[in-house]
């Protein structure tokens, strides 16, 4: 079985950079945005839409009906979210089966738990995250420190929805 390292991280902590450097040092494959690109190809959804589903993980409410049924109405957004999550799980399984790898985010530590990945979580103090975000920000982005702190905190507090689908190892 291949060696798998998963990197979880706080927003702005440098987890992606750490994962890239670790993969180069170990000679492992590195996967991050490539997963979004592959999901986009396989589902015929735009990369921006797949990224939005992966990042925002919308919460879905199911209507409660009085009477004899408790049947949720069809929800195309939920169906697309499930399709994206399933494809993500398949891609992660394929990547882990193909070679030793470092995978950043994407619930890889949960989806690939049968591979017994080495799990790393990267965090940083708020000042370091602010500095890193300022360095990486586009020139058009002009957020005050207060706004940037709020953005970082909001992203870090988002609930993570993963494991809608997980195939057994070897499939």
Keyphrases for this structure?
171 residues; alpha/beta; 49% helix
What is the fold's blueprint, element by element?
Elements (H helix, E strand, L loop, with lengths): L3 E6 L5 H12 L2 E3 L1 H11 L3 H10 L19 H23 L2 E4 L3 H4 L6 E5 L3 H11 L8 H13 L14
Helix pairs in contact: 2-3, 2-4, 6-7
How is this structure best summarized?
This protein has about 170 residues and is α/β, with parallel strands linked by helices.
Explain this structure to me?
- This protein is α/β, with parallel strands linked by helices.
- It is 49% helix and 11% strand.
- The protein contains seven helices and four strands, in the order E-H-E-H-H-H-E-H-E-H-H.
- It has helices at 15-26, 33-43, 47-56, 76-98, 108-111, 126-136, 145-157; strands at 4-9, 29-31, 101-104, 118-122.
- A four-stranded parallel sheet has the order 2-3-1-4, with helices on both faces.
- Helix 2 (33-43) crosses helix 3 (47-56), helix 2 (33-43) crosses helix 4 (76-98) and helix 6 packs across helix 7 (145-157).
- The model is unreliable at 58-68 and 163-167 (pLDDT under 50).
